[in-house]
Amino acid sequence: MEITPKFDFVEGSFDTKDVKMICVQSEKHGRVDLCIKEEGSMNVSIGKIKLHSRDLYVDFVATFDDAVKLGKEIARRWNECETKE
């Protein structure tokens, strides 16, 4: 399936059959993101993993390890899926 994002500094489209999903984590920046990675291209963030309701860094740190585990599991399942359209 052809997807065309509308992000600043991102042009073009990608086919869901040809991309990998990765989990990108940064404790320093307080983020755990799901990203699409096309070979030879930059990571395009498509979602954020957030396991806390308050936007406090202390809550982010408390849930960071579990957010990374969840992100990696979602990416693993995407990459192993054989029926992408």
Protein model, in words:
By secondary structure, the chain is an alpha+beta fold. The protein is built from one helix and five strands; from the N terminus they run βββββα. It has one domain (2-80). The chain has one helix at residues 57-80; strands at residues 2-3, 14-15, 20-26, 31-37, 43-48. It is globular. It starts with a strand and ends in a 5-residue tail after the last helix.
Strand order of the largest sheet: 3-4-5
Structural class: alpha+beta
- Give the overall shape: globular
Number of domains: 1
**β-strand number:** 5
Mean pLDDT: 90
Largest sheet report: 3 strands, antiparallel
In short:
By secondary structure, the chain is of the alpha+beta class. It has one helix at residues 57-80; strands at residues 2-3, 14-15, 20-26, 31-37, 43-48. It is built from 1 helix and 5 strands; from the N terminus they run βββββα.
Keywords:
alpha+beta, 85 residues, single chain, 3-stranded antiparallel beta sheet, two-stranded antiparallel sheet
Secondary-structure topology with pairs:
Blueprint: E1 2-3, E2 14-15, E3 20-26, E4 31-37, E5 43-48, H1 57-80
Antiparallel strand pairs: 1-2, 3-4, 4-5
